[in-house]
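Q: Focus on the shape:
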Amino acid sequence: MATTVEATRTQPAAAPASIPWHHNRQRYIAAGLVILALSALAVWFVVASGRRKEEFAARSLNQARVAAEAGNLPLASSELQKLIAAYKGTDAASEAVITLNQVRMINGQSELAAVGLREFLNGKPSEQYRTPASGLLAAALENSKRWVEAGNTYTEASNAAEVEYLKAKYLVDAGRAFRHGGRAEEAARAYRTLLEKYPKSPSVTEAKVRLAELTDGKM
């Protein structure tokens, strides 16, 4: 009897039954689904947050524009600066930069507008804001009598524009700035480019007149 008990004690414990492979597979699938669900939730949260941010920014932009239209430029300027700081990266913030610098130009602060617009362009904004910002920067430079810089910037705005009307208009503006800066050759080049590339533009008549003035009728 003692021998039997001793033998029983020395027998190794039975190994635990192995988990069937299909159970493990189900666990992996479940874990994967949980991870996917969490990832989808995170993406949704980011997208929803971005939309809310854009909505809030758009409301702020509208309020600032209402103040500007009412003639309260100091309030409009203040609201636009707050918007730009709070909602950086949104479309409304980009529009606010352009609107703010328009307000500055109306207030006779063209030099300050030029600084703000250059900084904005150096940040590489999206294409839809690059052209109007470049055109406004050129106008600010022209107001400050920095003629050659204005002419070059108008030319850049023309190159960046996607609409033929704007391409031609900015070339006429470039020609005017170059003329004021004593750069007749650059002015004539701008007008000739317009006549060659955009012959159906409403700006053609002015380009012909100005070019004739520069060349004494020898176009």
